[in-house]
Automatic annotation (TrEMBL):
First-to-last residue of the parent protein present: 26 to 476 of 555
Function of the protein: UDP-N-acetylglucosamine--dolichyl-phosphate N-acetylglucosaminephosphotransferase that operates in the biosynthetic pathway of dolichol-linked oligosaccharides, the glycan precursors employed in protein asparagine (N)-glycosylation. The assembly of dolichol-linked oligosaccharides begins on the cytosolic side of the endoplasmic reticulum membrane and finishes in its lumen. The sequential addition of sugars to dolichol pyrophosphate produces dolichol-linked oligosaccharides containing fourteen sugars, including two GlcNAcs, nine mannoses and three glucoses.
Topology with respect to the bilayer: Multi-pass membrane protein
Domain of life assignment: Eukaryota
Organism per entry: Steccherinum ochraceum
EC number, as in UniProt: 2.7.8.15
A cellular component annotation (GO) from this entry: endoplasmic reticulum membrane
Gene that specifies this protein: ALG7
Protein name: UDP-N-acetylglucosamine--dolichyl-phosphate N-acetylglucosaminephosphotransferase
Location within or outside the cell: Endoplasmic reticulum membrane
TM ranges: 12-31, 62-80, 109-128, 140-156, 168-186, 268-287, 299-317, 323-343, 421-440
Catalyses which reaction(s): a di-trans,poly-cis-dolichyl phosphate + UDP-N-acetyl-alpha-D-glucosamine = an N-acetyl-alpha-D-glucosaminyl-diphospho-di-trans,poly-cis-dolichol + UMP
A GO molecular-function descriptor: metal ion binding
Metal-binding is among the record's keywords: yes
Amino acid sequence: RSLLDPVPPIPALIASLGYAIFAFLAVAYLIPRLGPSFVKANLKGRDLLKTYDTPIPESQGLICAAVYILFLILFIPFAFSDVVLNLRGPESHKPTEGIVVPEFPHHKLSVYLSSLLSLLIATLLGFLDDVFDIRWRHKLPIPIIASIPLLMVYYAEQGNTNIVVPIPLRFLFGTLLNLGPLYYVYMSLLSTFSTNSFNILAGINGSEASQALIIAISVILNDLLYLPWPFGFHIPLHLLGSQSEIDFGGVYKAGMAYGSMELVERHLFSLCFMLPLVGVCAGFLYHNWYPARAFPGDTLCYVTGMAFAVVGIQAHFSKTLLLFFIPQIFNFLLSCPQLFGFVPCPRHRVPRFNKDTGLLYPSKAVFEKRPPSRLASLMLKTLAALHLVELSVNETGQQEVTNLTILNVFLVQLGPMKEVTLVKVLICSQIAGSVFAFFVRYGLAGLVHVN
Ligand code: UD1
Ligand code: MG
């Protein structure tokens, strides 16, 4: 089968695109209609950054997850359309003697079903977290367990556990380093990271859904580079000093470890999971945009995070995927002193809203019980020197620090602003992160070799 033969992927792609549009419409239609039932069931929240107290339906991510998973299930026949046609097609499609009947790709189906299973577990966990407010130490290991089906399937197809060592470190480790079981540990941690990292970069209208939307679009753009387009153009990366090449319309050539068709199929799989996700997130964002009429809850953070872990692992581009999470990685590293108890962590770290000016200001954590330890002081002074936090002392002489989140960093650096401006700043930083990721992945790939 020629690589330039666009026949097999096209029906699946068109179906997936159709589902994405339906998913958008379904979510946009259902949220305002089902919201009141959530409020009645006490799944509601107060918008912390507004003057009004109207209860806003919480956990609307459950509607998004339901629509998303439903469409992924309905998509199964399309994903296997070429096989189904070949096996049980009309008379003309029936194989004649001597021609080998293609075997049903049970393996592909197990990849698909294990992905659905992980998404379902993530939905359940997110919803339970919304209802019961699960403790951090209990909810951290659950996505690791949810990723076991994915890892088993990865193992079954003898998934690669090598990493290409960046050139400057090759004298130590050689060109290829086999991480073996450690690679599986890394992939299971990826699912915990992607699910929780959205949840701690949250709290202003539109933040959760827009992060997921931009990452999903970035993954889609990356996938499109690997499809066998009937037309093509060449991106001259050597002008950027890169040793690798992208042939848009061929397949990305540098360091290709697998047969091309396999690579195409993996990225098609990723597209089929990402297109409906874009539809769902866009439909939700419509109602979650400032001033929000619906809150995502932890459910949306967990489902979208797990969807990214699924495609990163199953389509074998987990390192490229992590590059799209730059703002989340930064926010997580910055949050560590609060998450691990060196600095007090209030229930909500969202910026502070001033009713009089209508603007957001950095919110603060106060060392109420005891003054900062020496280690905590050192951390905070370093962060203050980098202009990431502001230190102060309140009227009662207690040490205060602006909460360690990227949203507060924006406010420290750019000054007070409106909520809707802050979410736009966040969106810009996410887009800038993705542009940088593409540059590192394809521009610098000759230097660092990530894939
Ligand atoms: C995480 C954050 C917490 C942040 C919260 C906001 C950490 C360790 N935890 O906690 O600091 O305050 O998310 O989502 O970083 N809300 C708004 N506007 C929005 C979205 C949410 O006011 O646009 C408020 C609502 O009151 C809503 C509540 O946040 O009910 C949801 O918080 P929840 O998801 O339960 O917080 P956590 O995920 O535990
Ligand atoms: Mg949350």
